[in-house]
Write a structure and sequence with these properties.
This protein has a domain of 82 residues. It is built from eleven helices and two strands, in the order ααααααβααβααα.
């Protein structure tokens, strides 16, 4: 009996399913962001501000790494009946918008007459996620991306007065509807500079997350150089006409 040939057919059949299993693994990995969000909500209800941001940081790390895996393993091709983009958007809305807004209310980042602004943020962000061209095929976000987790994180560390926080959030919420194109890691203009700068910023955010309210002033103030660069690059690309070129929604 030829034992080598007897195992050939099952191996071949199994290998056909490997790409499908890998694709579903990516979807499962994305859904772990929901678990991180649940743990952030637990910490929020317990009044543990630092722990909330730790879990939101875990969710951010998952969101930053599932996209490259999805493209590398062609999840759209191998799981055509499942919308991974929708799963990602649901997860991001919870972790980037809902939980930061609840945090701002629970810990008094926004208080008093400014509280209605949090409702504006929720609505504006929902509209942003539902916009067909929220992500474009040339690698941009249309309108202010829902970086509310980052905004609230900085407001917490800088101890921004509630009225200032409410004003800033209102301005950012309005910017969701202004069709400026915000760069992503896939945007070609100054891509290498942006990537290098964002990696340094990611390390600084990790350091801020570890030290939290005891963060060194130099680290805290130095870390906002990247957000300044990001907004400056967005405006530059618009004024230069680069980001005004016609584009299509990314699917």
């Amino acid at each position: 009996m030829n034992t080598e040939n007897s195992f050939a057919v099952p191996v071949i059949k199994f290998s056909r399913h490997v790409p499908i299993l890998r694709a579903w693994t990516v979807h499962f990995y994305t859904s772990l962001g929901l678990l991180a969000g649940f743990l952030a909500l637990q910490a929020l209800m317990a009044g543990k501000a630092h722990e909330v941001f730790i879990w939101l940081g875990v969710a951010l790390a998952i969101d930053a790494t599932d996209g490259p895996l999805a493209r590398r393993w062609q999840v759209r091709y191998w799981t055509p009946a499942f919308n991974g983009r929708k799963l990602d958007d649901i997860t991001d809305y919870i972790n980037y918008t809902l939980i930061p807004v609840l945090f701002a209310y629970r810990f008094g980042i926004v208080a008093g007459a400014g509280v209605p602004v949090l409702g504006l943020v929720l609505i504006a962000s929902a509209y942003g996620f539902c916009h067909e061209a929220a992500k474009t095929d040339d690698g941009y976000f249309t309108g202010f991306p829902s970086y509310w987790n980052i905004a609230i994180f900085y407001m917490t560390l800088f101890r921004v007065p509630p009225i200032v926080a409410a004003t800033a959030l209102a301005v950012l919420a309005v910017m969701v509807w202004i069709p400026l194109k915000y760069p992503t890691w896939k945007s070609k203009p100054l891509r290498h500079i942006t990537l290098c700068f964002s990696l340094v910023w990611a390390v600084s955010l990790l350091a801020l997350l570890i030290t939290f309210e005891q963060a060194p002033a130099l680290l805290l103030w130095g870390s906002i150089l990247f957000p300044i660069y990001y907004f400056a690059l967005t405006l530059y690309l618009y004024v230069a006409g680069v980001s005004r070129r016609p584009s299509k929604p990314a699917y």
